[in-house]
Amino acid sequence: MTDWTAVRADDFAVPADRPLVELVNELSELLRSADPTERDSTAYSTLATWIGRGVLSGDQLRELGDEMARRFGDAEIQARTFAPLILDCIVTAGVYEASWVPPFERWYVAEADLRGYDAKLGWLHAVAHGADLLGTLGLYPAVEPVEMLRLGIGRLLTPTEHVLRDMEDDRLSYALACTLTRPELTVEDATDWLVPAFTGITPLGLSINPVNTNTTRTLRALYVFVDRGVRLPEAAEATQIPHSAEIKAQLVEVLRQVTRSYF
To answer: What global pTM score does this model have?
Structure first.
C-alpha cells in the first residue's frame, strides 16, 4: 500500500517507485472505501489533482472514466456518489466518451439514497456530486444541453422523502444555469424542460412534501442566475443566459403553484 499521507504532504507528487497504472488502480479502489478519509481526502483529492495537472494520459483517463461509469451500478452508496466527481474532472480535462452519459443519467434520476452527510461514511451528496457532472456535461459541446436540463428536472421530481440540505439545491441550480448558457438553445428548448413541473409538484394547500420543497428551492435559485447571469468555471465575469425573459416567465408560472399567496 502506498503511503498516501506522504504523497499529500509532498503536494501530491507522483511516487517514482511504482508504475502510474498501479497507483491509479489503488486510488480507484480507495474511492469505494467506507472510510471518508481514504475516499475523500486521499483518493478523490489525489486523483482530482493528478487529472488537473495532466499526469494521466488520454487512454488512462478513458479507462478510469469507464470504471467510474460502471460504478453507478455499485452496491455501495459512497462508490456511486464519488464516481461523478471523477468523471467531472475527466471531462473538464477534455476527455469525453458518449458511453458514460447513459449510466450517469440512469443513476442520477433514480438514486434513492440522498443523504448529504453521514456520521460514519462522511460526505455522500448524491444530488450535489451529480449536479457537478451535469453542469460540466451541460457545457460540453458533444452533449445535448436539453438532455441535461431534462435530467435535472427529472431528478427533482423523482419521489423522495428526503429534503435536500447543505446547499445541494444550489449546486443543481448552478448546473442548470450553466447548461442554459448554451447558445444553440431555442426559446422552446430553454423553457419546455420545465413543463413536467406543472404536474410533478403538488399545488399549494394540498400538501407540503420533499419534492415540492426541493424543486421550489432549486428553481428559485435558478431564477436568480437567469436574472443576474452565471459565472461559468474559470470565467472572470458572469455570463448572461439567453432567453432570460422567457425562462423567468416560465419559472414564475411553475413557482406560482406553490407560492401563489405571494404573487
So the answer is: 0.96
Cβ pair 255, 219 in contact under 8 A = yes
The answer to whether 193 and 170 have CB atoms below 8 angstroms apart is: no
- The answer to whether 30 and 70 have CB atoms below 8 angstroms apart is no
Any residues with CB less than 8 A from the CB of 18 and at least 6 apart, and which?
2
C-alpha to C-alpha distance for 36 and 77, rounded to whole angstroms: 12
Residue whose grid cell is 411553475: 254
Dist. CA 233–CA 181, nearest whole Å: 12
Residues β-bridged to residue 216: none
Mean pLDDT in runs of 10 for the chain (263 residues)? 94 96 97 97 97 98 98 98 98 98 98 96 97 98 98 97 95 98 98 95 75 95 98 95 98 87 57
What are the CA-CA distances from residue 34 to residues 80, 124, 226 (Å)? 12, 10, 38
- Residue 99 class from Cβ within 10 Å (0-12 exposed, 13-18 middle, 19+ buried)? exposed
Q: With contact defined as beta carbons under 8 Å apart, do 228 and 263 qualify?
A: no
Tell me which residue has cell 466518451: 97
